[in-house]
Amino acid sequence: MSEMTAPAGKGSMRLLAAAFGVAFSVLLLVPIWSAMGVLDTEAGHGDHGAATVMAAEDFQARVDQQLERFGQADGSVAIPPGTDVFVMARQYAFVPRTIHLKRGETYDLVFYAADVMHGVSLIMGGSLSSVLLPGTPVTIRVRPTASGTIALRCTEYCGAGHHAMTASITVGD
């Protein structure tokens, strides 16, 4: 048996025309609302704002200042409490590679991918991860409560040397 379908009736055509009219009206109204200030294009979803974009040279200058102020003879940095920690991600290294923090203190770790997409995972009993898009700083707030070492690993494939892209945070008193 073959199925027979009835042609679309006038009611269906009216419904289709009404849906098209509403969609077209919204399409026209969005730019008008934006120009009038009704839509806040800076707010983003959940009013958390758009990501901040920063030039690689500007972030590198912060890393260099940090190394000058807090650098150790072995190339590591010992960051005092209340100071942001700047970490540059480049193929195939985190700079600085070793960071010393004090137990029980709160730090903002500010990561930046200078070249390609990277990821960072802080492995400390559990794991805390974030994706690093080129040009966009990502801040992870940590408060290490135990002495020891927190491993940092790149979690996004970034090329042939990806497997060696590691760093560490040494937590002490």
The gist of it:
The protein is of the alpha/beta class and about 170 residues long.
Topology:
Blueprint: H1 10-36, H2 56-70, E1 77-78, E2 85-90, E3 93-95, E4 98-102, E5 107-113, E6 118-124, E7 126-132, E8 138-142, E9 148-153, E10 166-172
Parallel strand pairs: 1-4, 2-5, 4-10
Antiparallel strand pairs: 2-3, 5-8, 6-7, 6-9, 9-10
Give a structural overview.
The chain has a six-stranded mixed sheet. The relative contact order is 0.14. With about 170 residues, it is an alpha/beta fold. Residues about 45 have low confidence and may be disordered. The protein folds into two domains: about 10-45; about 55-170, Immunoglobulin-like (Sandwich), CATH 2.60.40.420. It is built from two helices and ten strands. Helix content is about 25%, strand content about 30%.
The largest sheet, given as strand count, sense and whether it forms a barrel, is: 6 strands, mixed
Number of domains: 2
Strand order, largest beta sheet: 1-4-10-9-6-7
Morphology call: elongated
Strand content: 25-35%
The CATH class of the largest domain is identified as: Mainly Beta
- What is the number of strand segments? 10
Supply the CATH architecture of the largest domain: Sandwich
Helix content: 10-25%
Task: Write the CATH homologous superfamily of the largest domain.
Answer: Cupredoxins -  blue copper proteins
Structural class: alpha/beta
The helix/strand series, from N terminus to C terminus, equals HHEEEEEEEEEE
N-C termini distance: 83 Å
Which fold name corresponds to the CATH topology of the largest domain? Immunoglobulin-like
Number of helices: 2
Rg, nearest Å: 26 Å
- Mean pLDDT across the residues is 86
Low-confidence stretches: 43-47
